[in-house]
């Protein structure tokens, strides 16, 4: 009983996480969960609380011939709203409503209005308007409805299922599954858990000899057979409950087991051929119910007078089980003596979960033991990843986060923590606390604090020995943070002193960088007096840890691990508890690990056999003890263990096991000998594996004849074991077949996944057979099961040749659907990762197979008879090796030391124990599983971070590596398949935390010189051939951190010669030949045969395999290949573009290699750290002009029809900077100086547009030469660097900094004064400056890896503005930097998901791409500007010069940049004097490493003048993390306003600091000229003083950039609710007088954002628009509508932004003037001034008709200036004419005059141009998304579809738009874009929510600032209506 009670105490494992009345998870599709959670998590999809149900009377008549049903429902509805309502809203789905009436009690008048009533798509609402207003003083109203519905086969709602009865007649049944939201499919109802009511159910069924009584939650009360052939059965009224708990079954089911206690009715229902097999279920069920009542002190049968317990087994059931009150339904639960131990365990756990939401245990079934593996270890794995979530997660707020929270962590981790709590409090105390909690919260919901409070209140003296500890404190430390701790234990074995420290565990790195601390109850034991029974913790965070009985991991020091291993090898190993030996019965844990290894060694026959030898030797003892044959009086745990062990051994090829299986199978087939249930899984499988087609046919007939669903599942699991190909094909045919409604399904829908897994995984030899079958039957890949087969099979490929074969098929099988190809490629990626896993560890496996295990370097402490003196450790002692204390930078380690008296040491263990005992050591490895991963990680850390490492150190750092290879196995799997866990019976496979493997190359080989030859370039057919000759240096085991120069780059400190392969990148190349030459002796290197090389398409790698290990040295690699010129520029790499010249189509080919696309043109080391010299040779058609590359042409060879051009070698560069170009383009060379060449190159016909770019480009180059002290043209390392800039009609990026050959989009390089506006002219200057800046930052010194991209892009972005400003100060770019880059950086950083400049998560292609973001560009540049103001202009320049000089032609790291700044300021006495405590590296690093940007909160006390400055991270939403920056602070005071000096007065390096100022009325303004990257918020008094000053005539005394800062900050604070909204708008009121460009630029975007939030409420939107127009009147009058000759740059820019904004929001003056200019253009051909075109063109089309559209479209088609074409393309979207808009959108998809990079922009333009067109544009997307997604070359594929869908988010501003269902209905067609669509809906709903929450304050303010009095007077009425709509 004690054991049972302990186990029962885990009841709260689910209760606490879901509460007594919350709905549990069930197995539903992703689409359904998204749909349902969309309804449940958004208030607009939730029912309002104006009415609620009291009672339902439901009558349903199912027709099991037509599979329809008729229904009536009468609902008593109470009005709960204090305000009258005239509409009743409830749920219905897929029902046809035939009649509706609403009546008052005792009245007959129908109050419902309307003739038709429908279930709304999207919301599932049924709206019933009433003719009178209903009020709360009415007792209730009666809603009566009649309806019809369909009995579907979806296993949801009211659905149909079938079975065969005892006469083999096929029987249909109707049953239900309503959780989470499917009761609405059976009858109209309030289908949310919060709406509880009572139910009176009547079911009408056929009245014939075969029919049996219906079943529902309650017993039958009355029957009525007055209707001929029918009988109506009415059930007793249910307790008050939610609709999802309702259930009923109409079938021929009979009771198969009935309880014997009338007062406690308990009945098992099933089909009649089950007969007595329900007895065991009844027995266990009654026992469970009794025990749970006893344990909880809460009687089940006391919940209602007519409460019964019924359980029914359903043939087709989507969930494992369902907890309907009074009627539990199951898919698997019938048990008798032919089912077996595993099913018995399943049944008990499944039954108990539905009865109690908990698990059941009997001692003989070993549940307490199995809990360790099946719950605790599983949760440890899931909780080890960065994606893990806390148990109590405040971020669970939407459908995705809710769904993700139904996870292993929520189930298994929660249960594990509760188990730990039970041991902490003691059983009795724990049980009292739970009972108090249930009594306190019965029939209600609960919060975690409710549980903690009740446990604390009943704790008594249980916590007395733990000073200050409470359950609330302890539990919160575990429930409110993700992850779990790792305890590091170090022991001085001479003195007995032990040290324990905690860190957060991370599966990828060992120790997480998160600083997590837990209150950890510790238990331990020791060898001298082992005690594994006392589970009461001794300390909190204060003692050594040995026993794995808490939710944490343990890592011991090296010596202790060795002692534990020795103990496990000894005859006394049983002294160590079995939990601690293997964290479950040792063999169950070992099987999981061994299976992991067997899969990864399967392609290496020698290693595989070595592993099997170990396995079979290890199994000797367990096989001898258990035997193969099950006895009659077997122990349950032994039977279970035998089943697992023999299944494993037979699968592994154990000869004796296979023989027994075959013999028993044949005896069954030939003689009918019964196979015991627990032997069936491995006997079936072994018999089929060794059998023939006839054996399979016999087996399958028995499967079809089998009635027990459990047995059928076992047989399905074995069917795939067949070794006969014909039999396998038969099995596959069944899996993919689609029977009609009248045909039987050989495999039930819920069993398909088991069948698919069986077909692929049960026999290793079948993997390729399955794939070959699919290759020959591709039609099956149109089905979901076919795709699942393909996905599973491709994930289990064993060799690269198999992978290549499948890849070749995928590339040629054009008929395959994208879903099938995507699934196959994902599977191939898994297979590739498995192969690579073994390749990385091959030599370690070999060493283990040779030696068994390591004990080097450690001596066993002497025994007590030979003790030696030892110096005891002290608390100050620190571990001496990295193994002792795993740590990473930023870790917080909590250490404690405890002295334990030394006990007698064990004698040295013998190595010759009983059979198999020596190999128990292999099992001990599984005890050390995840722990030793840390040792592996640490050895990597040592290698990567130490400047040099001695050989001995390196070996000691990896001592644990080899045994760790076995230990790691359990970290990736669990002993029992996931579907076997009780917590997963209702919720399968919703959580996966397994991260993608790394994409990085190993830095043991570096290229030094690369020659790339491109031949046979055919632009029409888009193909070429190529060859690469590269010299590489092999530097195996070399540690080199500083690659500053060529001599430093390759330090050949060789440790060992074990390089068996060289890996480099390739993508979509066909390799035809590879040879390798040893440059030392000139001999060819022997390649492996067969397969001298393999290609990995997923990771885009080429592996060269050698017959013998390479000796470190120099080698030449020659590779011949063929390649494809990509037809779509968006694919990047070597791609083709086009243009028209003189009406002739011309092609060109060019490159875009950044960041990882050089591999598409030639095999290479395609990472930035691998730098080398490249010599390019191009053979082009004679018809084309000279080709271009990074360097000038060195030689030309005439080959007849073609020309070969070879270029000079490049400087040392990364592969992504290589570039070449083949075309008939023409250059304009603007300099005659041979040593400083500069050219603009473009297509023919536009050369007159070269001049501006040439002029500004030369000047920028000169400015950068002077500033940085290194001349650009001298960077060629012996050759003059040319300076070519090429304008491309098609280019996927804005521009690309290739050294010597920069590529641009035409719009960003070509300038036509008549057609290029000032904005685009500035683009030309700034983008050229950006790309030229890269020549120093990125090209000359390159970031080591893309995680440090800011070292390239931030500096280029800085010079983008400032170098262009030096070249042309009239452009005002130094000031524009603030509103363009500082503001955009702060805006991006306001997101909770903002990334740091140094983003360590950059590890694969998607994250690389993501890091090319605002963070790396604008934020980094803003940080540099801030540093320049801090250190001074001269120090800043000198620091950059130091960095470039010290690292030229090498790689850069943040540390090298910091050192350069430290070096520069060390030369400046003034800086050291002003900032004596400053650590410039630390200042810099705080901005590089932190996510987001800070807000500085300034509080000033007027009476004293004191200022207190506090910092925190600024976010618009979400939980704000604790972060700290070192912030340079500058400020000025009202009495001495001075905005000229931006030098900081202080560096804020603490969370808060005081600063002095003058007392009195004296406001302060921080961040002068917004020189720092931070926002500033003030106390209200300071804000009011600033507002008053800004609204005075002194406004302009505050610098324009600070006025811009104030506006931008205030508008963000309004959005984030960090300022009172009325106060905020009072500050902004000065805009009425403001005329400056920079100030308005800081305001317009945010004002428009707020305005858009009101679009769902037209009158509020109109009021705010009117307010904005009033703000703008003065600036419009100041600027005028026409340009003036002396306008400055900022004036012109201001006019552009103001008039465009004014016309868009409907400013009458702007519209009138624009129409005047448009009509003059239309009627008189008077050109619109270039800087006014955007708003004039748009207004002309918005107010015009089709003829206006046609005029502008024809102008677009004839234009030769790309920038002007983009302006027109944007304006064309403003048309209101539907035919014109259709034409525009069709042209955006198919016209070759609209470039592919503009096509998606065209879609966005269509949304932006005219809000009236939004629904039309969305419908167009709905009709064409498949074309967009599947037409990569024309439109851009899924990536572009994602952009189109994302563009919709900002324009879904009404409920009607958001509730469009097509995205949900089109989930399959949308593919990966569906998730984007879901995000769009979420974003749109968040926008509406913000508008609802903030509208009142803003509306009140703007109503008093110029809006009409009528609007103001009715503001509250408008807002009330608006908010009601929002809440609905």
Can you tell me the CATH architecture of the domain at 47-365?
Answer: Sandwich
Main beta sheet: strand number and arrangement? 8 strands, mixed
Low-confidence segments: 1-42, 333-363, 542-553, 573-584, 853-998, 1036-1057, 1907-1928
What share of residues are in beta strands? Answer: 15-25%
Question: What's the level 1 CATH class of the domain at 47-365?
Answer: Mainly Beta
Give the overall shape, derived from the CA principal axes: globular
Q: End-to-end span in angstroms?
A: 53 Å
CATH fold name of the domain at 47-365, please? Answer: Immunoglobulin-like
Question: How many β-strand runs?
Answer: 55
Class of secondary structure makeup: alpha+beta
Structure description:
The protein is an alpha+beta fold and 1928 residues long. Among the domains are: 1-24 and 366-375 and 405-479, Neutral Protease Domain 2 (Neutral Protease, domain 2, Orthogonal Bundle); 47-365, Sandwich (Immunoglobulin-like); 481-556 and 564-580 and 839-865 and 877-947 and 963-996, no CATH class; 998-1138 and 1154-1214, Immunoglobulin-like (Sandwich); 1341-1492, Neutral Protease Domain 2 (Neutral Protease, domain 2), CATH 1.10.390.10. The strands form 16 sheets. Strands 26, 27, 29, 32, 35, 37, 38 and 39 form an 8-stranded mixed beta sheet that branches. Strand 17 (321-322) and strand 18 form a beta hairpin. Helix 4 packs across helix 5 and helix 50 (1733-1742) packs parallel to helix 52. It is globular. It starts with a helix and ends with a helix.
